[in-house]
Amino acid sequence: MDVADITGAQLPQLAALMRSLSGLDTDMERLEASFRAMAALPDYHLLGVSVDGALAGAALGIVCLDVVGACRPFMVVENVVVAAPCRRLGVGRRLFAALEERARARDCLYAMLVAGPGREEARAFYSALGYFESWGFKKRL
Question: By the 8 A CB rule, do 73 and 107 touch?
Answer without folding.
Answer: yes
